[in-house]
Write a structure and sequence with these properties.
By secondary structure, the chain is an all-alpha fold. The protein has one domain. The chain has 16 helices and no strands.
Amino acid sequence: MRKINRNLTEGHTGRHLVGLTWPMLMGLMGMVVFHLADTYFIGRLGVQQLAAIGFSFPVIMLVNSLAHGVGIGTSSLVSRNIVGVDRRFVRMMSSRAILLGLIIVLVFVAVGLLTIRPLFTVLGAEEELLGYIYDYMSIWYFGVVFVVVPMIGNNIIRATGDTFTPGMIMMLAALINFILDPLFIFGIGPFPAMGIKGAALATVISRSTNLVLVLIILIRRERLLTIYIGRFRDVLKTWVDVLHIAGPASLALLITPLSIGLITRIISGFGKEAVAAFGVASRIETFALMVISALGSVLIIFMGQNISQLKFSRIRQAVRYSGIFSLGWGAVISIVFFFFAEPVSALFSENELVKDTTSLYLKIIGMSYGFQGLVMISISSFNGLNKPLPAAFFSVVRMMGLYVPFAWIGSSIWGLQGVFWACFSANLISGIITYLFLIRTVRRLKSFHSHLPENTYPDGMYTA
């Protein structure tokens, strides 16, 4: 029976965070390159096709949010059990989580295929774009299973302390997509020119490699999947435990595509070029923040393992190190975009208005990325500490309480630039408040458990 790959309750905190983050970063970089490649090659087709992808971005984020939410719940649960609980129980727990993901896939695909045109009409897509959107999404939906299951599976692998393997799997998928995109989109060699449909097909094929490799790792190497998942009431209990985190986490993550959908609706009033620029800038933003995203994923498993053994000194160190890094990284990105926003924007579109709008977005909002990072690492820490409600609350506050209303007001007074400054303000305010509340939460947890020694839960899961 395999032991845990890395025990995060011992050793130097900073080294653990760095050692786990860089392979996670490689995987996230692969996924960002995945989306940037789609944006780049589709951008060669024209502004209409690029705008169609811009409209699809909220829906793609919706699927990723559902999958990521279940993945977060699974990662938190497994990491709080992996140190002291029997491996056979963890194996059934992981299998039940995968089954939950499959059920979610079936429901989402059925609903999604039936609502393509009405949904994107509500989002503000004009008739000339709906054809391109349908071509892309009708193929993309059939690949949802290749998104959800590997995302949950990768989170299970990470919970054991191995972030290298999931990172390399994600990099491989990105490489395959990068190769297939131009072949299918433009019809190079024996391949027919499929346009935007080719981009969707390349995505489905490359994602399928993720599924195969993740299942091989979980079954053959980790031995964390089994056909026998126990009694139905035990399955339901695991689902409840996963959804205790995944429910609020998914809600928090769903707020983002919902909010982005509303922001897209506001921006669509400024023309299709503005929508195209927003889609491009959103993908560049994901790239700029991927280091923080990687650190956030690591914090879930680090917090989970350490809270299970009441290692509060290590938890406080992780919070401090992460906050300092987020602000420092944000400052670096802000400087880079101040000087290089124009050439970066020019990589994705030849349209002058699209380039100028993308550049303006990056310069304004880029100044707040350090504070947006504080929100991201705080939310991950809350989930790792088995405190999903604050994570969901602050996500809702940032997007629906601040960003959307600020954007609506800003667009009415200052136009498109007002939308960008609204995002800057939302990031700044929510970053400070969320991080301070995380510090307060850790102090209260330590005080609540002050009568207990470390390693109080060596044979069971921390649930308080």
